[in-house]
Structure formats: structure tokens, C-alpha cells
Amino acid sequence: MPGKRIMVIGAGVSGLGAIKICLEEGLEPTCFEESNDIGGLWRYETEGGRPSVYKSVISNTSKEMTAYSDYPFPDHFPNYLHNSKIMEYLRMYVKHFHILKHIRFLVCSVRKHSDFSFTGQWDVVVQAEGKQESYVFDGIMVCSGLFTNPIMPLQEFPGITRFKGQYIHSWEYKSPEKFQGKKIIVIGIGNSGVDLAIELSHVAAQVFLSTRRGAWIWNRVWDNGMPLDTVLFTRFNSLLNKICPAFLTNRWAENKLNAHFNHDIYGLLPQHSHQATFGDDLPNRIISGRVLMKPNVTKFTETSAIFEDGTEENVDVVIFATGYTYSFPFLENNSTVLDIQHSMYKFVFPPALEKPTLAFIGILQPVGATIPTSELQSRWAARVFKGLNKLPSVNGMMAHIRKKKTEFEKTVQYVDYMDEIASEIAVKPNLFSLFLWDPKLALEIFLGPCTPYQYRLQGPGKWAGAREAILTQRERIIKPLRTRTLIRDQLPISPNLLLYELGNSLFLM
């Protein structure tokens, strides 16, 4: 008997994982991608009307935490990946699991079938080579991503329309060359805003980084030179977070980050939030004067920006790093399909649909990697589509949404959310059982990084290579760092030689 026909919208990191999961579950996926290639946001393009990474972008999550759960990155790949390496990995994944033949590159629209309340089916119309084609699908996975509709809050900045310089959204930025010698203000202190301020400070006459709230600046490289997420995102730390009062956890984090540099002195101390941003080189650019921190802009003149503290700076370019909002233009405007506030059950299922045959994959942004989060969501959605997992009643889902409502404003913890979805399909690792039967593996799962492979140890989709992938993950972290072979002398080094070398070093300074 043929499997249910599933439509996957988008061939980015979430969509590719969704296709593979559908194949794994015996479903028949067809992916529709409006561009001409896979990769979504990660595919760098010099021009074009769609959001994509700029040329120098490097991932904020490390490779072991970012991998698909049954396909680790090659061990020689660096821990933090340039966008070209991400694309290389995605093409390897697509080839390995024979995914490309299930992707069609065209535009589509999606509407409920006339008997949706009975069948849960969807009518899909696609535009292919000037012709329209119609299809009926049993389920829809929306994998078009978070970064689809740039926010340009021009109404909040009086005078911007009279500004004679250039103003753009960060998604239009691709490389720094054309900004040589300019005075630039970057508005927004998220990851993109800080990245752009750092990069532009190498070529611009001056960069101003404007923020109304400040941020805590985190480094990709953490204690002992290890990737940040492999040290912090562990089950042990997740347990500590549940036990310790929030103020103690926050104080520890603040003290840790202030030990690197004092956020108050550097003009970065958040006022009312714990906004976290990656910016490895930001303190270096601030201390050298290449980036100047500024408060919020109150208005623009034809040639300058005036800030809340009354200061005024002449600027040539304004870059709005002000984020994105969700946009699903292919979906019918129906409150049961997509409500205004995007209140999904566990960030996946619209609760008011008569049939649970529509899933939003990857619209949640936890403090962690997108690939494993969206892949686990797809595994759950596929089993709901097949009828193997049931959702609660509408009232039950709405009660859960209300209970979790603050998570839309607050940070969603990576390990907690992954475990929550994993529990739906019985793939959360059983630590108690593992400690009895495989204590070595259990210790690595509890104390080591919570890598995606943990969710392939048991239950549906179990992968025979999961145990080995977990026990060798530290080797894959260390291998790309050891690119220089150290030859250690067998004889002790003479103290006189040490003094000589020290003297030469001081002289050269």
C-alpha cells in the first residue's frame, strides 16, 4: 500500500531533514522550493530577492551539536563552520539519502481540500514553466524558515526618509568592500548586527552600534578552548538549571561574561533582559575604537543620527539589523491554519485544525542548533500524519499553549525542548537503563554534550551507529584543532635556553 503523500515546503536545512524523515517513515514526500537550489538561508548569493547569508558568515553552533542525528559531520570539518562548509555538508546529506529526486524547484500555493474536515487533505497549485499544475496531499510540512520577511521599522525613526545617505536591512548586506571609508551606523544588537559591526569596522571610517537594550556577548570558544555549546548544553547542566534558582544561574553567567570584559564599562549591559549575542571580536573592536557603542536613535537628519543621550554623529550608511517576521504567503488566510500570534502546539501544530495534517517545522529558535530541533519536529509530525501518535484535544492543546505562552518571549532551553518532543515519539534516552547496562555511554550522555545522536539510540528511527557517534564525538571535536604536529624533545629544556628565548621575546616586543 503506498504511503501518504506529504508536501514539504522549502529545501533548506529543515526541509531536507523533513524529506529524509518522510522517506524513513514510508511516506511519499514531494518538496517544493521556490529558488533554484537547496540550502535556503545558508546558500550564499551575491544578489537576488531572497534572504541569504553574507559571504563571511560562520555558524554560531558547533558541528557536533548541529548535525543531523544519523549523519555526523566529517571529523576533519572545523567545529564552527563557514557557510560554504554547511552547504558542502548539506549536499553530502542529500546525496547520501537520495533526497534530490524528491525536490521540485517552483512556486506554490496551498489551500484546504473541499472535504478537509473529513480527509485532512490539501489542494496545492504550483507554477512550473509558465503552466499551473494541481495536486492533492495528505499532509503539509512548512519548512520555509524563520528569516523570510525582513522588518524595517522606519516609522520608529523620524527623519529617515529625508536621510540623504543609504539605508538598508541587514539581509541586503553581502560583503564589506563597497562600504570602504564610510561612517556606518548599525541598528540592532542581535547576532547579525554585531557580526556586521565587527566586519565593517575593518574597512569603514567608523562604525556605530546602536542598541536600546544592550546584550550579553558570548564567545564561541569556551573553557579549555572547547566549543561553547558542547560545554554548556549537557544533561548535567540542564538538571542544575532545574535545581538552582534562576537568579543564581543568571548571576553565574553574568559573572562569567563580565570576567572576560565588563559589559557596563563597554556600554553593553542589558537593562531589562538577558539578550544573548555572539560576538567573539566585539570587545577588541570597541577597545580599539573601531566600533563605538551608542544608545537608541531618536531621529535622523539629512546627514546625521541623533541619539537618546543627545549626541549627534554624521553617518553615510544606516543598516537595520532589526530582525524578521514569519511570512507564509503560500498559505490561505485562515485563522485555523495560522493564527496572528503564531500560537502552535509545541511550536509545531496549529491547534484549531479539524485534522492534524499541517506542521510548521523550524519556526522555533531555541538557544541551540536549528537542524536537530527541526529534524526531531519532523519525526514527530510524520508519526502524527501516519496516525501513530495522537494530539490532545483542542482544549488540551490550548491549555498547553497558554501555560507555555511566556516561552515566546523568553528563551526556550535546547535540551528541555528536545527532550519534550523526543518524549512524544519515545526516543528520549533512558538514562536509568543505560547506567545499568552501558555505564560508559550513560556517563557521556549525562555529562557530555547533548548531541542529536542521543535521539537515535532507541525507539522509532533507531540508528545502529548512534552509540559509536556519541562515544567518538570528542575525537571529532579535537581532530580539526590538531593541525600542527608537536615534536616534544625527550631531553629536558635547559633553563638558560628558556631565559635566552624569553629575553629575545621581550626585546622584540
From TrEMBL:
Reaction catalyzed: N,N-dimethylaniline + NADPH + O2 + H(+) = N,N-dimethylaniline N-oxide + NADP(+) + H2O; trimethylamine + NADPH + O2 = trimethylamine N-oxide + NADP(+) + H2O; hypotaurine + NADH + O2 + H(+) = taurine + NAD(+) + H2O; hypotaurine + NADPH + O2 + H(+) = taurine + NADP(+) + H2O
Keyword set includes Transit peptide: no
Cofactors that this protein relies on: FAD
Signal peptide stretch: none
Topology in membrane: Single-pass membrane protein
Residue stretches spanning the membrane: none
Subcellular location: Endoplasmic reticulum membrane
Top-level lineage group: Eukaryota
Pfam family, one: FMO-like
SUPFAM superfamilies: FAD/NAD(P)-binding domain
Alphabetized GO MF terms: flavin adenine dinucleotide binding; N,N-dimethylaniline monooxygenase activity; NADP binding; trimethylamine monooxygenase activity
Keyword vocabulary terms for this entry: Endoplasmic reticulum, FAD, Flavoprotein, Membrane, Monooxygenase, NADP, Oxidoreductase, Transmembrane, Transmembrane helix
GO CC, alphabetical: endoplasmic reticulum membrane
EC code: 1.-.-.-
Function: Broad spectrum monooxygenase that catalyzes the oxygenation of a wide variety of nitrogen- and sulfur-containing compounds including xenobiotics. Catalyzes the S-oxygenation of hypotaurine to produce taurine, an organic osmolyte involved in cell volume regulation as well as a variety of cytoprotective and developmental processes.
Similarity comment: Belongs to the FMO family.
Protein name as catalogued: Flavin-containing monooxygenase
Species: Moschus moschiferus
Taxonomic lineage from the root: Eukaryota, Metazoa, Chordata, Craniata, Vertebrata
